[in-house]
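Query structure, 232 tokens:
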């Protein structure tokens, strides 16, 4: 019998997209042969809009943080409440493409991988200059020897055993980098797969460059901490 799947969605001010994302996952739940997708958990991270209300009809559980605690704390709260052996982390803004998550989980259901990372299609509009991604790729390789092409992707399927074996999740934009380093250094098997998700993209404007600047700082801090305090 295939193991069951819990999907964790951290959300902060995602009222515009969260219900569409969850409806798409319900379509996946109804898909023939995938009846085991039986738990959708939303962690409302202190949203100031109607995220909670928009998620309520579609989520099996909603955890409401009293204030904005960050993505790491939200994912931590979500997976620790999950009842199933496979946990999937998804962003709230995937909309109708969330249905494609079955592609992300297949390598784990087949029994030979412990964590699967989604590779997105090429961005539809020009973003940054790749500095954050290059930093993450080189840092991950230096600290654990894994060659990645999607170091910043937050769409991941994992065995709960992996999450129980690594330290608490890093916060900020470095969370995915830290999780990859810890998983490889703990001996877990990981891979990347192409999944044609669509989500909100940042452009070459002030907001986009500010976002990528925060990413660069956060990833740098995570790499430093993983270098200073490696897991073994």
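Result returned for the query:
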């Amino acid at each position: 019998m295939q193991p069951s799947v819990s999907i964790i969605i951290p959300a902060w001010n995602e009222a515009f997209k969260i219900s569409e994302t969850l409806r798409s996952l319900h379509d996946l739940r109804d898909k023939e042969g995938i009846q085991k997708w039986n738990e959708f958990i939303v962690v409302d991270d202190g949203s100031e809009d109607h995220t909670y209300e928009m998620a309520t009809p579609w989520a099996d559980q909603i955890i409401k943080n009293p204030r904005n605690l960050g993505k790491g704390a939200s994912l931590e709260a979500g997976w620790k409440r999950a009842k199933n052996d496979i946990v999937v982390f998804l962003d709230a803004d995937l909309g109708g493409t969330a249905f494609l998550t079955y592609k992300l989980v297949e390598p784990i259901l087949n029994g030979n991988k412990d964590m699967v990372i989604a590779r997105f299609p090429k961005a539809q509009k020009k973003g940054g200059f790749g500095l954050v991604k290059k930093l993450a790729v080189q840092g991950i390789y230096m600290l654990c020897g894994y060659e990645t092409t999607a170091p910043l992707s937050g769409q991941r399927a994992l065995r709960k055993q992996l999450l129980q074996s690594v330290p608490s999740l890093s916060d900020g934009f470095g969370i995915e980098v830290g999780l990859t380093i810890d998983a490889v250094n703990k001996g877990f098997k990981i891979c990347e797969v192409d999944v044609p998700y669509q989500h909100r993209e940042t452009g070459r404007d002030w907001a986009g460059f500010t976002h990528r600047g925060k990413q660069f700082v956060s990833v740098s801090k995570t790499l430093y901490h993983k270098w200073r305090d490696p897991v073994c």
